[in-house]
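For practice. Supply one:
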Amino acid sequence: MNLCDLAVESIAGLQPYVPGKPIEELQRQYGVRDVIKLASNESPIGPSQAAQAAIALATRDLTRYPDGNGYSLKLALSEKFQVDAKQITLGNGSNDVLELIARCFASPADEVMFAQHAFAVYSLVAQAIGAKLVEVPAKNYGHDLPAMQQAINANTKLIFIANPNNPTGTYIPAQEVHAFLQAVPDNVIVVLDEAYVEYGDQNINSVDWLAEFPNLIICRTFSKAYGLAGLRVGFALSSPEIADLLNRLRQPFNVNHLAMCAAIAALGDEDYLQRAKQVNNEGMQQYIDGFNAMGLNYIPSKANFICVDVKTNAAEIYEKLLQQGVIVRPVAGYGLPNHLRISIGLAKENQRCLEALANSLSES
């Protein structure tokens, strides 16, 4: 008997999410000691000193379960975003919240919509519950909101929008998102995934839209600009009614004590956030200049990564970069077989990556 036959059909057919290659794996694979990882959109500057100090203090309480309600973190978030604590759902990273949303609102009778080249987790969580996947073709590597609006029908239950988008880095102007929300029926849940929003230069706060659109859920994370990817803490902001439903599904201790303490400290460290944005802006320009010098096209990005067209099979270039100790991310699985997604690192890491890329391209 094949034990896979015992699984729910929608689960048995899943292809698992493949994260960026760990540094240790590359060291084992090629024996390369000096490795830089620019594959997972992590902060290159490390966690803030405030977060590290909070973690050190919190280790005294490791024999206790974390606060299952996350009271202190919710209080900090409610003050930061001027929302009621009852509008907040905490997650073990924002991926956890995305799965909660899908499980809460979609069923095999429903359609879940997302854009071509959008974050792979949207299709994974929808497929896991057996919902029908509706992928709307991209426009200029990003979301085509008018086309998505046209694709809405009586079976549409859930729409995922990443802004900025991963892996392409494209950004939808706020007024276009707002117009889309106005056009979406009230019985369709719209998830605005803003994992990279801190890196942009946007002045409009989407959180203000929650009062206008009860069917809106905003997801954010501490894994990117706040530099806490290893602790896994994210959150959703929504109407109290939606948050209540999500919190019924949420595991009671899904965010650990160290993560919550570090997140509270990071949230209040504005100097760290500004430094992270500055390093990202300078690194982004470094890559743009490098790509222009090599005659490579790239997708303009508002995130902490950039997608570049290497004009050939990107998998081959990816392997050549690995052999030089540089880990980036091939995105053929997103329908971009000639592109590599490169996370913004420190200046010396970016320069090494550009040099390795030039070497790899010259050999191909």
